[in-house]
Design a protein that fits this description.
Elements (H helix, E strand, L loop, with lengths): L3 H6 L9 E9 L5 E5 L8 E5 L6 E8 L1 H6 L5 E9 L3 E10 L5 E3 L9 E10 L1 H4 L7 E2 L5 H9 L8 E2 L9 E2 L5 H11 L6 E2 L5 E3 L12 E2 L12 E4 L7 E6 L9 E6 L8 H4 L4 E5 L5 H15 L3 E7 L10 E4 L2 E11 L6 E7 L9
Parallel strand pairs: 10-13, 14-20, 16-18
Antiparallel strand pairs: 1-2, 1-5, 3-4, 3-21, 4-8, 5-6, 6-8, 7-8, 9-11, 12-13, 15-19, 16-17, 19-22, 20-21, 21-22
Helix pairs in contact: 4-5
């Protein structure tokens, strides 16, 4: 029996599937549906996700012909992308705003006639809305970071965010002219969250950082062998990767004691202090008010930024991959930090995975 799961997995007996992509226009103010776009078949759009970028998702290579270019309003509209798998269902892949309005003029071959206008679009997820400068200063005010984040975002035209709870507070502040996204990322790291992102439903997500090596994988490439032959590349960055993360705060008005947090990567990692015999530090100066907060900040940086081995590989497009998925492959757990889908019927999905090692919580 053909089911949703075994079709997505391409289990034995399922050699192919029919996949298309739909581009809907949504009014960014009212949320009303305004129509469907049909990009030029002469171009191949792509959707990429990169957790290391402030704006993690980009929809590129979308080329519209004159009639539909006139329908899309880049200052107001959003494009909602959906993957459609024939006979199985539809899977949202996020909402996107235009980052430019480029018009290419091409001759239509008729003397004296007006030239045709084709608009190639580059679009971002709605972090583009957050990544604008604060018009006034913003202070956290010493309340729970999860509540501070809500206050920071409350006036923006985005879907209500999903924010994990946390027990940490913040007294940090940001001056007018600072990017709101910078303040958001600072708060997330101080609260022990992974970097925030907009998910497949177009919802901003802030999830608590976890130990990928000790987490049950959400995707298993060993039991579901979908990695394409010859697509694997492995990069070892252990020579230059830091093995200690140090966070310091110069806020002397609150504590007379030095505010310092230190996180050493696991001794099992090949570039650990134990294995290398010396410290290779990454030192950050941040706004925190206690060594406990600095310790959380350092630990979160360590989990997110420890890159020893990076693996890239191709599979068929799979809408179950979102962000920070734990992927089991070659007998190890890997944290997925990025992917790119070629948005065509025979397109592939390129995955970027970081090798994980157990998180060290030993006191320094």
């Amino acid at each position: 029996m053909i089911t949703e799961t075994n079709t997505l997995n391409l289990d034995r007996g399922i050699g192919q599937r029919s996949t298309t992509y739909r581009f809907d226009i949504i009014d960014g103010v009212t949320g009303a549906y305004r129509g469907e776009l049909h990009p030029s078949r002469g171009s191949t759009p792509s959707l990429s996700h990169d957790t290391t970028s402030t704006i993690s998702r980009r929809l590129q290579g979308l080329t519209l012909f004159p009639e539909e270019a006139a329908l899309f309003r880049p200052l107001v509209d959003r494009i909602a992308l959906t993957m459609v798998i024939d006979g199985i269902g539809e899977y949202p892949l996020g909402r996107y705003v235009a980052s430019d309005d480029v018009r290419t003029v091409q001759s239509d071959g008729v003397t004296g006639a007006l030239a045709s206008i084709i608009r190639p679009l580059s679009l971002y997820d709605e972090m583009f809305i957050i990544d604008q400068k604060l018009s006034d200063s913003f202070a956290a005010g010493g309340v729970l970071i999860s509540e501070v984040i809500k206050t920071l975002l409350e006036e923006l035209p985005i879907i209500e965010p999903r924010i994990d709870g946390c027990s940490e507070t913040s007294d940090a502040g940001w001056s007018a002219g600072t990017s709101r996204a910078t303040a958001l990322k600072d708060l997330c790291t101080a609260g022990g969250y992974f970097a925030p992102w907009f998910d497949h439903t177009g919802t901003l997500r802030c999830i608590q950082a976890f130990d990928p090596a000790a987490t049950v994988p959400t995707i298993n490439f060993d039991t579901i062998p979908r990695v394409m032959r010859g697509s694997i590349t492995l990069t070892d960055e252990s020579v230059s990767a830091p093995n200690r993360f140090v966070v310091v705060s110069n806020d002397t008005g609150i504590s007379e004691e030095p505010i310092v947090g230190i996180y050493d990567i696991s001794a099992t990692a090949p570039n650990s202090i134990l294995n290398r015999g010396f410290v290779l530090p990454d030192v950050r100066d941040v706004q925190v008010t206690s060594s406990a907060q600095a310790q959380i900040y350092a630990r979160t940086l360590g989990i997110q930024n420890t890159i020893v081995e990076k693996l890239e590989c191709d599979t068929t497009p799979d809408p179950r991959h979102d962000a920070y998925d734990v992927v089991r492959f070659l007998g190890e757990n890997w944290l997925e930090i990025g992917w790119t889908i070629t948005l065509s019927g025979n397109g592939t999905m390129r995955h970027v995975l970081n090798r994980t090692y157990p998180v060290s919580d030993e006191e320094i």
